[in-house]
């Protein structure tokens, strides 16, 4: 097995399970070609986002010669596993694939990119998107996808619980959040300001906000630095204090039924999630209707606000597609045209483009979600959160492995008093350095 193929398999992380996607594969029998989108073409799309369905309908009305065969992959991790399986097999690769920003580098870095470089088609697009999302699709001087949505992290909190605890001002700094945590904890044995059992996406956004640089990569050269980055230490020590003083619920995992119930009844008084969260709250924690609010994530320095992304995804054209021009036409319609973007935001998606973040209709939000947030202009807060995201954060080119083992090292620190977050992050670094080196990356420690 060649080094590049070894890496293509390695970036699956721990995904040894083989996942199949029905009716998959790029359309090799159509008359269209990489340089011609005018003939009759059938494109295969792998994605998990349901708001793409009405986008496909609108696109096919506008371009009747291009048919989109949509294969719902279920979720982001399944998509990565399936795509890696297809790459390893050398067949069945889709024309277009939805990928989270954190997993894009693993399909680009190596001897041969598995995604098409669309830089020559996207001149001037940089100013269309928010800095964080555009930075995430720009890798090693190329552009390998168009941003589809974003997930600037925000604080969703129960105003009723905050009021009961005497927290009358929303915390603007982490020191203020700590003081609020003590007041909420005093409400009773089951009250906590938040719950966290070790969520890598939330922690990544915390590190991003703080200006930490745990990962840096240039091609196949990777630097991993949790141990000596002072910003990592700042974040880890803050949350360690919250754990040590029993100010956060470390027994309830994100997305568990108990987590949703705690948000609903206010015993979990706040959570940190991406701007895509409102519709999930309406569905999963309905009991909090009217009491919930959204606020900017507390900052380390209120005079210098910053933020990080939690989630978000892009649409990429695969290098294996025989119909790259037609495929680009679709991702451009979905992610760059006002029509395609509006279809998705009307369906509850959070945008990656600057214009929509200023649009009056978008900022007003939906009536149902406004009612849930006590008639708050929730999208205005989330748009501000997006504008605070810095653009200088890199992901590990084998993010799948990092995600799969994070709980074994860092997650353990939330419930095991014999270790700490910094010790867990140090062990996490050791494991990632070894894994990357074993797969042929040149890895050094910062």
From TrEMBL:
Domain of life here?
Bacteria
The Gene Ontology biological process terms listed for this entry are:
transmembrane transport
Cite the InterPro entries for this sequence: Bact_solute-bd_prot1 (IPR050490), SBP (IPR006059), SBP_1_CS (IPR006061)
Signal peptide start-end? 1-25
Q: Which SUPFAM superfamilies match?
A: Periplasmic binding protein-like II
Output the Pfam families linked to this UniProt entry.
SBP_bac_1
| UniProt xrefs under CDD domains | PBP2_TMBP_like (cd13585)
What keywords appear on the UniProt entry? Signal, Transport
Q: Say which family it is in.
A: Belongs to the bacterial solute-binding protein 1 family.
The protein's name in its UniProt record: ABC transporter substrate-binding protein
